[in-house]
Give the backbone structure.
Amino acid sequence: MRMGLGGRAGARAPWASAQEPVKVGVVAPFSGVAGDYGKQMEGGMKAFFKLHGDTFAGRKIQLLIRDTGGPNPEVAKRLAQELVTRDKVDFLAGFGFTPEAMAAAPVATEAKKPMIVMNAASSVVTTRSPYIARFSMSLPQVSAPMASWAARNGIRKVYTLVADYAPGIDSEAAFKKAFEAAGGQVVDSVRVPLRNPDFAPFVQKIKDTKPEAVFMFVPAGEQSIAFMKAFEERGLGKDGIKVIATGDLTDDDVLNSMGDPVLGVITSHHYSAAHDSPENKAFVQAFRDVNKDLKRPNFMAVGGYDGMAAIAEVVKKLGNDIDGDKAMEILKGLKLTSPRGPIAIDPATRDIVQTVYIRRVEKRGNEYWNVEFDKFADVKDPAK
Ligand code: PHB
C-alpha cells in the first residue's frame, strides 16, 4: 500500500530523505532608490552559501525575499506579519531602514521569531524586541570613533550635517559628545530631510560658517553622490573645509560613481571591501561569483553574510527543534570571525561589538576604495 503524506499526522514520509527547509523571511527594500540595500544583503547571504553551503543539520536554508520598496514602515510590518503567519518562517531578517525595523519589531516579539538585523542602525532598534540581534552597526558606535580621531588629529571646529531621523540624530549626538569631550567644538548643526534633500543651501551655509571640517551622516546611496556634488560645486574643498563622515557616505556600492571630489575623504565604519584579510578576500570573490549586477560587497552585504552565519550556527545546534527563545540564547554572546574582523553579540543588549576602522578614499587604477589606516577595537554602542 502507498501511504499518503497525510497517513500519519505529523510524521515524515519514510521515503523522504530531505528534511524541512529552514525558512528565512528577508524584509528590505529591493526596488526604488534604496533597492541596492536588499540586493546587497541578499548578495552577502548568497556569498555565505557559496563559501559554506546552504544546508546545516540536514536542513536547507530557504530565503523568502520581500520588497518594501522603502523606506516604508507600514509595508515592512505587513510583510513581516505575512511571513510569520502565512509562510511560517523560522527567522525574520534584513531591515535596511530604522523605521522599517521598528515597525516589524512587535511582530517578532508576538511570534517569538528571531529578527536578524542586517543594517538598521539607530541605537534604539535592538531595544524594540527581545528577539532582535543586530549584525550591522549602530550610528553612535561608528560616529564616536570619528570624533576621537578628528580631535586627535588637530581638527577643532566642526559643523555637523545629518539626515533628520533617528540614525542621523544618534550620529549627531554621539559625534558631539565624543568631540567635545576631546576638546573640540561643534560650531553648528543642521538636519536635512530624509527624502530627496536639496543640499545646496545647507552646503552654502556651511561654507559661510568656515568650519575646519564638516562631519556628516546621510543614509547610504544616491544622497552621498548629491552631497559631494554640492560640496564640490560650491567650492568648499578649495576653501580647505574637510569632509569627515561615517562610512555610509563612501559606501562601496556607490563609491565609484562619486568621482574625484571624494578622494581623501576620511570616514569611520565597520566594513570596507578593501579590508585586508584572508576571510575578506574569500568573501569579496564569492560575492562577485554569485552577483552579476553588483560589483563589490558593501557594509550591508557583510551584515547579510554575518547574519546568515549566525542563522547557520543556530540551525547547526537546534536542527529540527528551532525555537525563538533557544535561538536567542545561542545568538547572545555569539562570536564570529567576520570578513570585517572579529565580531560578537553582547548578551546584555543583543547588539554587535566590533572593530571600527578609520579609512581614507584612495584611487587604485580606475577604482576608488576605502583604505583602512587606523582602528578602534571592541567598540560597543556608546549610547547604551
Ligand atoms: C537606517 O535607517 O538605520 C540606516 C539606513 C542607511 C544607512 C544607515 C542606517 O546607511
Observations:
- The CA atoms of residues 37 and 115 lie 17 Å apart.
